[in-house]
Amino acid sequence: MKLRIATCQFPVSDDIARNTRYVMRQMRQARKNGADVAHFCECALSGYAGTDFEDFDGFDWGLLEASTRRILDLARELRLWIVLGSSHRLTRGHKPHNSVYVIDDRGAIRDRYDKRFCGGDPAGRTGDLAHYSPGDHECLFEIRGIRCGVLICYDYRFPELQREYKRRGVDVLFHSFHAAHFDPARLALVQAAIGPENFRFNHGGTTYPEITMPPTMQAAAAANHLWISCSNSSARESCWPAFFVRPDGVITGRLNRNRSGILLSRVDPKQTFYDSTVAWRDRAMRGVLHSGRVVRDPRSTRRTDF
Prior knowledge:
Blueprint: E1 3-9, H1 16-32, E2 37-39, H2 61-78, E3 81-88, E4 97-103, E5 109-114, E6 140-143, E7 146-152, H3 159-167, E8 172-176, H4 184-194, H5 208-224, E9 227-231, E10 243-245, E11 251-254, E12 261-267, H6 281-285, H7 298-301
Parallel strand pairs: 1-2, 2-3, 7-8, 8-9
Antiparallel strand pairs: 1-12, 3-4, 4-5, 6-7, 9-10, 10-11
Helix pairs in contact: 1-2
């Protein structure tokens, strides 16, 4: 069974109605192009607190719910799965979750992934933790018989999450990012921290997201033999455009930075790819952290000898 994935990007903002129009337009375009599922970036519908808007004071949760329901209705009409970044309100004064809703082709919310690793200081005064409560669960689902999982942005720095999905039989990982909407001051600050003298050594990368995120996704795909859809916001300045990686770590498609678009990719579980770790990956996941057979030899145990 093959799976056709539309990895989507548009300039996410604090305007929920505008974000909704973009999402619905790209849903229609994705279906017209034959996609089975449309994948959107982190906080695509709600906007991203601390970046697209200052905080959740006065946030219009009613409009967000109404907009989500419109998207559910369109998913049912188009018979299209949606992997949709948004924010999920909690109760009793708790900060909301930074979430991705998994919406099936009948217009029902099948599951919700809540970002587990939110950036910020341990006291929760900075970064994501100033605005969001971290989640504590995986998100597993099947589309056309293919097992899928979800991660969000900063989760990429924790390979344990990707490995656990592989352990659970996941073949396709939807990773929603929001590495965008850098204003000139923030961009200059990040570039200064990297050091302009180092730009040429990092494939033209001038921000931490651009330098680290795509290569980490390629490494994660190759190490775990996963297809990975990487969506992003295209709001200026976007650090990198949405892209797709196949299980051998090769990027098979990439959109244009700072421009709206849809990248269509095909997953075929029967297709074979180079996989140098296939013989030892399962053993490594069981805690056997070497290949072959360990020998018993005194010259092996004396590690300070010639």
